[in-house]
User: Which sequence fits this backbone?
């Protein structure tokens, strides 16, 4: 089964990245799109990511599509399903990219679309949002969860699985209810924890904002996802509130247990808490899968003088190494070296470390 014509409702980070990836792997495919912000589709058309702008989800042009991706918030996706229902061919697969599946599966069932709707959730992303931050390699080596409906054609599910694999992703087929409970624990709860931790520091900080000023790398790493879109996470949390609440009960119980250990000075209990978490965390795969990509980082001691950073950046550039981010670490708690350099992939980070060591810099890889 070959899909050569694709439609998009929404072109944010995920939708835009999907469209760019499809264009990269199949330059001759046809891509149509509607977004609530006309400037987004105009930009996508100008960049030749899409071939045609549609006026609404009800635009007759969508009838030519083999597969339509719903990439808007859940409520908007459900409304788009209603508008697309009688506007697409019977062989067209309707799918979404949302991180919560139950509501849209139930809506598809109520609309009589069980056999034609197959849920999808690329387990990738960024703390950045919008089409401007999309890229054609976002899905590489990331899990892509596929949630068939009751009555889905196995051949179409397999076609979707093959498409996800062609995107560079690792497809997994799950029941949509199981998907929502799993993501509540490994994706949704971490975002709530990050947001709560940032708000805790905000509420406890002094007028001089000393906590904010000296926040160490560990705090910044664990709270990076707190910069995600509030609108998106409002929709996610409301849509999956029952599962998230259940998972939060377990987390709050463990947090209260840790608080009791602090109050009573239970050193053995504190040790067991960190030992258990360390052993389980160390059993995880080190591959960069999941909603937030692994960042490859090196640290380098440099003399604080004019041009020091530029010298290192130039040295790496001459050797064909691209840098994602570079900056001075003022708080060195749990940090090695004063200059932090981030890379998109592991190989360039290791190559950069070797090159800088050859230039007599002291370098640590993390």
Assistant:
């Amino acid at each position: 089964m070959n899909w050569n014509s694709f439609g998009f409702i929404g072109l944010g980070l995920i939708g835009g990245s999907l469209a760019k990836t499809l264009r990269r792997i199949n330059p001759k495919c046809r891509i149509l799109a509607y977004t609530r912000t006309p400037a987004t589709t105009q930009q996508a058309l100008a960049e030749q990511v899409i071939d045609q702008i549609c006026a609404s989800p009800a635009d007759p042009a969508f009838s030519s599509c083999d597969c339509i991706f719903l990439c808007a918030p859940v409520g908007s996706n459900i409304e788009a399903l209603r508008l697309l229902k009688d506007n697409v061919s019977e062989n067209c697969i309707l799918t979404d990219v949302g991180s919560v599946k139950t509501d849209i599966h139930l809506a598809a069932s109520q609309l009589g679309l069980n056999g034609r709707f197959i849920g999808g959730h690329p387990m990738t992303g960024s703390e950045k949002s919008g089409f401007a931050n999309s890229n054609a390699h976002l899905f590489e080596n990331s899990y892509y969860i596929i949630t068939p409906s009751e009555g889905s054609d196995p051949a179409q599910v397999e076609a979707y699985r093959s498409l996800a694999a062609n995107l560079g992703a690792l497809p997994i087929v799950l029941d949509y209810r199981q998907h929502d409970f799993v993501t509540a624990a490994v994706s949704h709860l971490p975002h709530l924890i990050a947001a709560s931790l940032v708000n805790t520091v905000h509420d406890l900080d002094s007028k001089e904002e000393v906590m904010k000023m000296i926040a160490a790398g560990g705090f910044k790493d664990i709270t990076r996802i707190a910069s995600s879109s509030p609108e998106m996470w409002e929709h996610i949390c409301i849509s999956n509130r029952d599962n998230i609440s259940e998972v939060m009960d377990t987390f709050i119980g463990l947090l209260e247990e840790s608080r009791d250990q602090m109050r009573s000075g239970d050193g053995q209990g504190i040790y067991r808490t960190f030992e258990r978490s360390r052993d389980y965390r160390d059993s995880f795969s080190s591959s960069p899968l999941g909603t937030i990509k692994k960042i490859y980082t090196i640290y380098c001691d440099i003399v604080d003088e004019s041009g020091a950073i530029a010298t290192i950046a130039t040295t790496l550039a001459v050797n064909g190494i691209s840098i994602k981010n570079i900056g001075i670490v003022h708080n060195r708690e749990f940090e090695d070296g004063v200059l932090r350099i981030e890379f998109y992939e592991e190989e360039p980070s290791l190559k950069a470390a070797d090159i800088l060591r050859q230039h007599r810099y002291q370098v640590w890889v993390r």
Observations:
- The CA atoms of residues 295 and 344 lie 6 Å apart.
- The domain at 296-365 is CATH 3.30.70.260 (Alpha-Beta Plaits).
- Residues 176-204 form the longest helix (29 residues).
- The chain has three domains: 5-175, 180-282, 296-365.
